[in-house]
Amino acid sequence: MADADRPIIAEREITAPADVQAPAAAEPAAEKPKRGWLRIVALLSVPLIIIGVGAYFWLTSGRFVSTDNAYVQQDKVSVSADVGGRIVEVSVRENQHVNKGDLLFRIDPEPYRIAVEQARAALASAQVNVQTLRTEYQGKGADIEGARIAIQQAQEDFDRQSALMARGFTTRANYLNSQHALQQAKVQLQNAQAEAALAKAKLQTGAAVPGENPQIAAARAQLDQALLNLKRTEVRAPAPGTVSQADRLQVGNQIVSGLPALSIVVGDRTWVEANFKETQLNKVRVGQPAEIEIDAYSGLKLKGHVWSFGAGTGSEFSVLPAQNANGNWVKVTQRVPVRIAIDEASPRPLIAGLSADVTVDVRGQH
């Protein structure tokens, strides 16, 4: 019995594992088609991606030109004093917003008030001088009339002496004296007329300032200049904007006329100056749309358009322009400044000098 049972056990030991392992051998057969499809998709997708990328670059090739050599620009007004003097008041601080006409700083006005008083005194003196000339001119008229009367009397005396001389009832000395008196009276009349003409000439107004004596006009001009200088002791903002470089303004400092005292950045008009290579400008035209990215604000993109082209390359307006006439030179691709107008309001403040990237669609129109 024992021997009879052994084959049965052995058969079970052999057949049982075969029944258990049969499903395991069937699983790879089911997954094999699935893995085959994945392999086919992978093999096909790589060429399709390469073809798609190549097609994109082929279609967009030459449509866009871009540069990262671009900067935000704003109008900057350099404010200087028209008169010199000591600063007595500073009304602004760095980065403060000001409106047009706001007081920036004040220069000591006392020397200029004194100049105004001196100019007023000079004007009054000129008016007195003119009135004196009028009086003298009127007096010269009386002198002329007196000289004419003296001539008439001398003429009558000369005629009488001439008649007596002809009849022999007078001396030759009396005759000569009467003749000399007549000539002297005529000379006095000529002198009076010349002095009257001179006085009249001093009262003339002239074509440049009609209706006003030159002395008075000159004194009035000096007074106007003094009043203007006094007004200029108050330096006010010429345009609205943000104050910059105001740290140089300190009460007590001496300021020289004409030298920049501070700057005002006018923020109501902002643009981007993009320096494109000269080889990129073949298809760029005014009005073409552009996209602006500001480096300081990640993800910010602004719409704009080509506004204008610079009149010269950057090197042409440099302090030391290149001199290539000696023959020892290397050709360098030049940069041309292109002004890009911003067509929409920025949600972030645009600060003058910020770096930007500009892309121009050379096939589009604004």
Automatic annotation (TrEMBL):
GO cellular component terms, alphabetically, are: cell envelope
Q: Does the keyword Transferase apply?
A: no
Its transmembrane ranges are 40-59
Name the source's superkingdom.
Bacteria
- For this entry, list what GO says about its biological process: transmembrane transport
InterPro entries for the chain? AaeA-lik-b-barrel (IPR058634), MdtA-like_BSH (IPR058625), MFP (IPR050739)
Q: Which Gene3D superfamilies match?
A: 2.40.30.170, 2.40.50.100, Helix hairpin bin
Q: Which UniProt keywords apply?
A: Coiled coil, Membrane, Transmembrane, Transmembrane helix
Pfam families, sorted: Beta-barrel_AAEA, BSH_RND
Compartments where located:
Cell envelope
Residues of the Multidrug resistance protein MdtA-like barrel-sandwich hybrid domain: 76-266
What are the coiled-coil residue ranges?
175-236
Residue limits of the p-hydroxybenzoic acid efflux pump subunit AaeA-like beta-barrel domain?
A: 271-360
Protein name (record): Biotin/lipoyl-binding protein
Lineage per the UniProt record: Bacteria, Pseudomonadati, Pseudomonadota, Alphaproteobacteria, Sphingomonadales
